[in-house]
Every structure is written in structure tokens, then in C-alpha cells.
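Proteins fold reproducibly. Next comes a concrete instance:

***
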Amino acid sequence: MTTHSGHHRETLNFTGFSGYYGFMSEHEGYGGFDYVDSVFYMNTSVFAIHPALCDTGYQNVPADTGAIALGWIYQSGGFESADLKESFSLRSMVAASAWSSNQEWTISTYTYSHGALALKGSESFYLSESVQTLKLGRVGKNIAAFGIKMTTYGSGGNTCSYGEPTYGYQLAFGDMKIRWNGKIPLHGVGRQLPLPGEAMHARHHAMPQSIHSGSMHASHHAGPPAQATHAAAWHSELLAMSHDPGGLVEQFALPHVEHWVG
């Protein structure tokens, strides 16, 4: 699950979970965190059922880390210390846009004091499907929580999967290096709080409707979908695999919930 090397350091690659993928909110406490909004894990075994995928961020992250799994986010996600009184530093992580090029993602960090979270700072990164190492420096030191959010759509990604550029709202990541200032907390120790200023739902255990909706082929279009078009066929690995018997939608047939862009 994690790699420890003294002084409460760990490297998270979101391994050890069953199935092809799932919500991290089903595994609160992993790595000392509780998870808010659309934070997922994915096992690399999923690539075998859809061999057309080529040079996506989903594939490039585990190829870089050497792990058999990765984390991914749909639009936005949050990570909170399972005990907000236990602070940590986000030292670095490797990341890639799953489907797009020049896509902006913003990491915002928060401190905890007197029962409330406060914004410490933010840093933005432009990502494509090739892996980059993200380092926050001072912004990532001695914090209690952080959020990751897509802030621009970017442009079309690689063409080798389907013969034309792909687009998507997903971030793939791994080798998340954390240094805890005290002990690594366990789930259920403290009360969790919403991240200030973030348009995120409370943690949930159902699949976003937009991931289940639409046609795979409609996602290969000339530009990113309009922000207001909730039912547009966005490019998701679920859309690409949902037509396979026994595929992801069949395996994780969870209730639809309203999702949002923002």
C-alpha cells in the first residue's frame, strides 16, 4: 500500500485494491488520508480489456512509476489528513493529463487551525499525456489538506488510440510522496471539513452520471465539449470500455448521481 522509509515518509501509488477501479472514498484512511469528491484508483489490469489505448496518461504514469496501479481524478478531488491535527508535506508526485494536451490543473493547499481549514496557497501546472514530476515547494509544506482541480480544458491529445485527437477531464497520477510531521493518522480519528472555496460535493460512494453517459465515438471531436453541456459524450476510460461485456460499467453498476462542472 505504502512505502515507508523512516520519519513517517510514504510513497502512494494506490495499489492493493480489487477490481479495475473504484472510489478512494471506499478506502478512507489509505496513506493517512480521507478522500473528497472524485478521487479514484485504477489497476493496470484494465488495459488488457481495451488494447486500443495508446500513449494515454493512464498508461504513462504507471510506466514511469513501475507500479501496477495509479490514482486518477475526474475534474476535481480532495485529500484531507484523516486527523486534521496531523499535518504533512506534499513533497512531489508524477502526473499526466489522461487524454488532453496543455490542460491546466491547479493544486490548492490548506492548513488547519481552531477548527477550520484555511487556504495556504495554490500552484498550477499545464499537463499533457506525457508524465511530469510536480513539486510544490513551500506551498506544499506543513498542510492538513489539498485539492486538485482542472482549470482549463486544454487541447486535443494523442491520436494513436483512435486515429484522431482525444479529450477528457481526467488527471492520472502516482508516486505521491508524503512526509508526515507526526504519526500517519488512521481513518475516523477526527471530523472532516469541506475544502474552502472548492466547488466539490461531500464524499460519496456513487459513480458520476457523466462517466456513464454518452457514446465512445462522440468524444473524438474537434474541440472540448461546452461546459454547460452536461450530457455531452466526454472522453472517459469508462466510455471507451463500457461496451465490453463484463467491462467497467457492468462491474461497477452504482447509482447515478448528479455531477457538475466548476
